Amino acid sequence: MKYTFNNILGNFILDEKFKIVDTKDKKKLEEVPKGKISLVLANFKDKKYYSEFYEKNLKLTKKGIKASISEDLLINQAIANIYELDKINNILIKRLREWVGLYLPEFEHSMSNQEKFVELIIENDKQELLKLIKLKESDCMGADLDESHLKEIRLLAKEIKELQALRKKHENYLEKVMVKYCPNLLELAGITIGAKLIELGRTLKHLAMLPASTVQLLGAEKALFRHLKTGSRSPKHGIIINHPLVQKAGRKDKGKAARMLADKLSLCARLDFFKGEFKAKEYRKILEEKLNIKV
Amino acid sequence: MKYTFNNILGNFILDEKFKIVDTKDKKKLEEVPKGKISLVLANFKDKKYYSEFYEKNLKLTKKGIKASISEDLLINQAIANIYELDKINNILIKRLREWVGLYLPEFEHSMSNQEKFVELIIENDKQELLKLIKLKESDCMGADLDESHLKEIRLLAKEIKELQALRKKHENYLEKVMVKYCPNLLELAGITIGAKLIELGRTLKHLAMLPASTVQLLGAEKALFRHLKTGSRSPKHGIIINHPLVQKAGRKDKGKAARMLADKLSLCARLDFFKGEFKAKEYRKILEEKLNIKV
To answer: Is the residue at A34 inside a domain?
Structure first.
């Protein structure tokens, strides 16, 4: 009677005393009975297997780690960087505004659109900017700075524009990854909200497993725990507050819109994870009709 | 008897009853006696002066604001932005390292020099990076990412390099401004510490008025107030801890080095504010000898 035994080192043939004979045998082999496993394992206490075990194990672990890098991790990195770029953009624009305020306070004050502000600073000199806000130079309260100072300010403005361009590129990249990986979520949630939902849920798999009510509150953990701890009002929406369907809903309907949207987003995540059909457009239409909002 | 009276509207001639006659008179005119000022001012309650007053006042205020923009404010903006760029650089490099770690964890781990890390990521593909750390691709634990993912990571690395270049340009700019405005402080403190001292002191004038013991602690306000409030150990140095003379001093000598350096920095600020001689090189030599440190 001979037995067969498999482990990461390969396939072994054992004799009736459960010693390794390590030959191929064409006869039908039986599996080792459960009670005798310890006898089999005793074979592998032999030192000659130690380094072999170590190496095979390492290889398998490395392979496991390699395989664990999924779209989820890539999406998480990109969306996290988009959020960081947004914060950085705010910091640097604040600095730019202060700096410009030294020589053109009236222009700084009158231009509230951030992107346009940066653009105009890069492309115009002081005279042209004064013309834009219809102000005579003699009326301007700003200092007369010479070109060496203005150059430095323009360098900062250019850098801000570059960072905004990088953010845009990250978005395009995310869209390309998501259109394959989670087309439904992408279609209904949009790029940044969709990616942020995956980041908040850690993986698409985990997001798909969450109840819709949790999806509704992802990103509002702070308010939720405050609610649980102090009894303050419970949050009605997390990150999905930024979705146009919630944004455009009337003040009283925001909670309802968030709940219905989270419901469908949850379905989207499940469809995407289980490689289901593309239904997001349908869902959007249903939501638009029920909420009477056109986005 | 006629009197003369000046205000921002111009020069007025008054008759003996203190009414404006507003003509030029070549006779010697007397100043209005103090007790009669209210009679003179009554003239200006006439509405015809109102808008004139308003406009002249506005013009003077604007002029005042314009004149208040000094090198101090420009230095403050530039050094504040350098500090922000440093923070941003740290945030983005951390992100880059995490992102690279997905496909080249071994490289990410082995390269501790930040600037070199960014440089190598920009200029090399995965194969070349693996060669640099002498690793076979099959041994690498990172995922096999295709070019579209790597491109995105490289874009971030390029942006980080741009930000580092902007920081360098800001430094050059500061040096140009400071070499004229505060050559002594620049020479002894260096660019970033010198500029930061002006920022912490708000202006060169104010910095020059501060006692050396305050200069020594500029930038350590938090530790100082903690000391005053809780009796914890008093701080021995603020921002000047980063100066090579303090850095290179032995652990026991740091306090002494900081005190002596602050002493001379304070003198430098005074020399610069009062347009005195250039003595910073001399001071540096004295400090080097006394502390037995060569920088």
So the answer is: yes
Domain end (from B38, B68, B98): B68
Spatial distance between the Cα atoms of A1 and B286, rounded to a whole number of angstroms: 94
> Euclidean distance between the first and final Cα of chain B, in Å?
74
Domain for residue A75, yes or no? Answer: yes
How many domains, in total, are found in chain A? 3
Judgement on whether residues A191 and A282 belong to the same structural domain of the protein: yes
Nearest Cβ partner for A65 among B65, B141, B169:
B141
For B23, the domain range is 3-68
Task: With beta carbons under 8 A apart, name residues in chain A contacting B74.
Answer: 102, 145, 149
Q: pLDDT tens-digit profile of B154-178? A: 999 999 999 999 999 999 999 999 9
Distance of alpha carbon B238 from alpha carbon B189, whole angstroms: 13
Give B116's pLDDT tier (boundaries 50, 70, 90): very high
Buried/exposed A207-245: b ≥16 CB within 10 Å, e otherwise: bbebebebbbbbbbeebbeeeeeeeeeebbbbbbbebeb
**Residues B214, B266 within the same domain:** yes
pLDDT per position as a tens digit, A19-59: 887 766 666 677 777 778 888 888 888 888 888 888 888 88
- Is residue B178 situated within a structural domain? no
The total number of residues shown for chain B amounts to: 295
CB contact under 8 A, B66 and A170: no
Is residue A81 domain-shared with residue A56, that is, in the same domain? no
Residue A251 located in a structural domain:
yes
Which among B165, B143, B269, B158 has a CA at the least distance from the CA of B216? B269
Q: Residue A37: its pLDDT value, please? A: 81
Sign of CA dihedral A177, A179, A185, A191: positive
| Cβ separation B99–A77 shorter than 8 A | yes
Size of interface A-B (CB pairs under 8 A): 98
Structural tokens at position A253: 């309907």
Q: Name the residue among B95, B146, B99 with its Cα closest to residue A177.
A: B146
Asked if B167 contacts B85 with a C-beta cutoff of 8 angstroms, the reply is yes
Q: What is the pLDDT of residues B88-101, one digit of tens each?
A: 999 999 999 999 99
Together in a domain, B194 and B264: yes
**Domain end point (choices A53, A68, A83):** A68
Q: Is pLDDT of A69 > 80? A: no
CATH number at residue A273: 1.10.246.90
The ipTM estimated for the assembled molecules is: 0.81
- In A148-167, which positions are buried (b, 16+ CB within 10 angstroms) versus exposed (e)? ebbebbbbbbebbeebbebb
Q: Give the separation between CA B83 and CA B199, rounded to whole angstroms.
A: 11
**Residue B59: closest CA among chain A residues belongs to which residue?**
A139
Report the C-alpha gap between A98 and A92 in whole angstroms.
10
Q: CB of B125 within 8 A of CB of B189?
A: no
Neighbours of B283 (CB within 10 A): 20
Q: Over range B10-24, report the average pLDDT.
A: 79
CB contact under 8 A, B69 and A103: yes
B contacts of A179 (beta carbons < 8 Å): none
Cβ contact (<8 Å) for B176 and A148? yes
Q: How many residues does chain A have?
A: 295
